[in-house]
Design brief:
Helices cover 55% and strands 5% of the residues. It is built from 5 helices and 2 strands. Strands 1-2 form a two-stranded antiparallel ribbon.
Length: 177
C-alpha cells in the first residue's frame, strides 16, 4: 500500500489532469472568434483567463521549492491586458502553463510535503501551497467552462447532461457489477 504522502501526490496529479482536461474540452467548443469575448470591462474572456492561469502557473511552479511563488519577473496586471488571436496560441500557453505544474509536482517527493515555501512572503507548507493552487485553478477552469458554454453554438455536455442522471447512474451501476 502507498503511503499517505505518495497517495496525496498521485491524487493531486489526477486532480490537475482532470482540471486541464475539463478546460480543454470546454475551450475546444468555443469558436476561435469568441475566445476574446467579455461581457464588459470588468469581466474576463477565455483568453484572458488562460493568460492569467499561465502567468500564475509559471510564477508558482517554475522554481517551486526554491523561490517565492510570486516571482519578481511576473507582471500580473499584464495578464489581464491584450488578447490572444488564435486557438493555437491559446493552447500553446495553456499547455506551457500546465507543463510548469506537472514538472514541479512530478519532481516532488513525499518528504517535500511538509517543507515551508512562500507565496508573496506568506509561509505555507507544500501541501498548503498545492491546495491553494488546486482551488485557484478550479475557480478559473469553472469560469472557462461557464463562458465556453455561453459562447458555444452547440454545447456538448462535459458531465451528465440535464435529464440523463438516471440513465447515467444505471450505466455506472451496471459497469461496477
Amino acid at each position: 500500500m502507498n503511503s499517505i504522502g505518495k497517495h496525496y501526490l498521485e491524487t493531486v496529479i489526477q486532480n490537475f489532469e482532470g482540471l486541464k482536461s475539463l478546460g480543454e474540452r470546454a475551450i475546444i467548443q468555443v469558436d476561435e472568434s469568441h475566445i476574446n469575448f467579455s461581457e464588459n470591462e470588468n469581466s474576463n474572456s477565455v483568453s484572458i483567463i488562460v493568460k492569467h492561469l499561465h502567468g500564475n502557473m509559471k510564477s508558482r511552479w517554475e522554481h517551486f521549492l526554491e523561490v517565492d511563488g510570486e516571482s519578481s519577473g511576473r507582471n500580473r496586471d499584464s495578464e489581464f491586458e491584450g488578447s490572444i488571436h488564435t486557438k493555437e496560441e491559446l493552447f500553446s500557453i495553456w499547455n506551457e502553463g500546465w507543463d510548469f505544474v506537472f514538472n514541479a509536482i512530478h519532481n516532488l517527493e513525499e518528504n517535500d510535503l511538509n517543507k515551508i515555501i512562500t507565496i508573496r512572503s506568506q509561509p505555507l507548507t507544500v501541501i498548503q501551497a498545492i491546495q491553494r493552487q488546486v482551488s485557484h485553478y478550479s475557480y478559473h477552469v469553472g469560469q472557462i467552462v461557464y463562458l465556453s458554454k455561453l459562447l458555444s453554438s452547440s454545447w456538448d455536455s462535459l458531465s451528465i447532461p440535464k435529464g440523463k442522471s438516471k440513465e447515467f447512474n444505471k450505466r455506472m451501476m451496471n459497469k461496477n457489477t
